[in-house]
Amino acid sequence: GPSVIPLSAVYQCPKDVWIKVFDLLCFKDLLAASQVCKEWFHISRTPILYQKFYQVLEKPFNRLEFRGLID
User: Fold this and answer.
1) How many CB atoms lie within 10 A of CB 40?
2) What is the rounded distance in angstroms from the CA atom of residue 48 to the CA atom of residue 63?
3) Distance (Å, rounded) from C-alpha 63 to C-alpha 14?
4) Residue 66: phi, psi to the nearest 5?
5) Cα–Cα distance between 18 and 68 in angstroms, integer?
6) What is the pTM of this model?
7) 3-state secondary structure the chain
8) pLDDT tens digits for range 49-68
9) Which of 21, 38, 39 is nearest to 30 (CA)?
């Protein structure tokens, strides 16, 4: 069957790896991840994760592009 990674190994990932994973999330999922545990809360507050959201908001309003960020 599929191999299972121990939870302790997941939590030992370096912060920069978590930031790359969190960077793949849409805004809504990033907010949800921030509520999982204290560690994820702090990682989710890394300013670079929000750059893509700010870039879209600074452009003329594009409903489809904005919708893609929150869903």
Assistant:
1) 17
2) 23
3) 35
4) -65, -45
5) 22
6) 0.67
7) CCCCCCHHHHHCCCHHHHHHHHCCCCHHHHHHHCCCCHHHHHHHCCHHHHHHHHHHHHCCCCHHHHHHHHC
8) 988 877 666 666 555 565 65
9) 21
